[in-house]
Amino acid sequence: MTAFILRRLAISAILLFFVSIVAFLIITLAPGSPYPWGDLNPKISPAVQNAFRKRFHLDQPIYKQYLLTMRDLFSGDLRSTKDDRPVLQKIAERLPATLKLNILALTLAFTFGILLGVFCVRHYGRAPDTFASLIAFILIALPSFWISYLITIALVKVFAVPILGTQSYGIAFSNDLRKWLDTFWHLALPATVLSLNGIAVQSRFIRASMAETLKEDYIRTARAKGLPEDAVFYKHALRNSIRPLVTGLGYLLPALLGGSVIVETIFAYPGIGRLGYQAVLDRDYPSLIALNFITAALVLLGNLFADLLYAVVDPRVRLE
Asked: Does a structural domain hold residue 57?
């Protein structure tokens, strides 16, 4: 196990290195200006422009820009071109909000995905299964930004329900419980929208896996021994059908982090997704590079966790 973890960490470090190079080249070579004032501003003196270029290593060849940027990132000296604040400090302020959002969305995706998948298998081939499968395919097809926009329009503009941000402003709460419920309300809606695609995908995984498991010989043997149908279904079939969900975890993690950019922006949720969207608008290259690096690292660690969890769920799997 230890050798497997060390080997996977080494492979992840190599992947992260190449991902950082590709991301750096895409960001820095993209059309547009890295200057906060733009390219054509006669009020900015050449001395100020040269000082800016030197401060952010824009006067160096592209390979030196990459090395110096990575050095600044790991030393904590990388600063935003927007407000000259340390990029890692800005990310540290926003990361907890995004982690809470994604953990809740992941929990909803697994919980309701399993429930929907089990419901389909219990009514396999009948009208409830067909209807639930149709709902799942619709959720897979609908983009999260469109659903977010509909909810925002319906609740904010039509019903005047406050859902943007992390709390309702201008409201004096009588106790901590009401304040906590208000915070949870603002977190629950974006997390639900973010989890819809995952619920649909996980339900299809569990449906397909259980449908195959129920045809296995040991299931027929359990029924022949006189075990109750619920025991056969939940204790034997469901337990041995969980493995594809662990595989789906590797898919869900990057999908959730990617979806956070749109969902957080529409719901005005102060996470790193919204920070990245604003950095794109501001052409804040250091922030974009740091966000991409940290997001890639989180995805690789999440995939490693999924592999370890796979071995826990199925003891037959040996990590060597």
From this structure: no
